[in-house]
Structure formats: structure tokens, C-alpha cells
Amino acid sequence: MSGRDEPSFLPEGGASADTLAALVMDLGAQLHVERQARLALQEALLRKGVVDAAAIDALAEDADFLAKARAGLDRSMARIMRILIEAGDRTGPLRAESPAIEPVARGIG
């Protein structure tokens, strides 16, 4: 943490406010598209009788499903954090990346 009273999640000299704003807007757009697609798929499955609402709700307590969902979240967060902490020219193909984050971002770790 820095000398401020509030938590700091990024290293000094990390992402700019513009980078953070662009990332938030991009994530918001992606979230909207994903949510709309999920709701459409869920509604189609319910209408066709392929699955019922109770079966969908039961997945919220399924340990295997939750483990897979958390692993996917971890990979997504690693990719987002890589964007925030990587250094160098963002348009260059060989910019430095944190070795601790890179394997997880590629789904290896």
C-alpha cells in the first residue's frame, strides 16, 4: 500500500486512469452481452422443457460446478490484472509481463 489511507491494488506507475476507465467500460459491455446471452439460453431451455428452474437453482450449490466457475473466474481475473500491471509499449509484441500471472492467464496454471 502507498502512504494513502485507502488500499492500493496496483504498483506505483501502474495503469493510468484512462486505461482503467477503458477496461471498466469494456468489461461492462462484455457483461451485458454475456448476461443477455445467458438469460436467452436459460429461457429457451426452460420453454422447451429441457431443464426446469429448480435444476438451474441447484447448480448454485453444486461443488463441481462452483469449482469450475471459480477456476474460470481466476483465469479471467489474471488476464485483467495482466492488462493493468504489464509494462512497456502496449502495442509491441514483446512487452514485459509478470511471470507469476502469465501462465495463469494462458490457462496453464
Could you name the key traits of this structure?
elongated; single chain; 2 domains; disordered C terminus; 60% helix; 109 residues; mainly alpha; 4 helices; 0% strand
List the helices and strands and how they pair.
Blueprint: H1 17-48, H2 53-58, H3 63-85, H4 102-105
Concise synopsis of the structure shown:
With 109 residues, the protein is an all-alpha fold. Helix content is 60%, strand content 0%. It folds into 2 domains: 14-61; 63-109.
Question: Can you walk through the features of this model?
Answer:
With 109 residues, the chain is mainly α. Helix content is 60%, strand content 0%. The protein contains four helices and no strands. The chain has helices at residues 17-48, 53-58, 63-85, 102-105. It is elongated, with a radius of gyration of 19 Å. The two termini are 27 Å apart. The model is unreliable at 101-109 (pLDDT under 50).
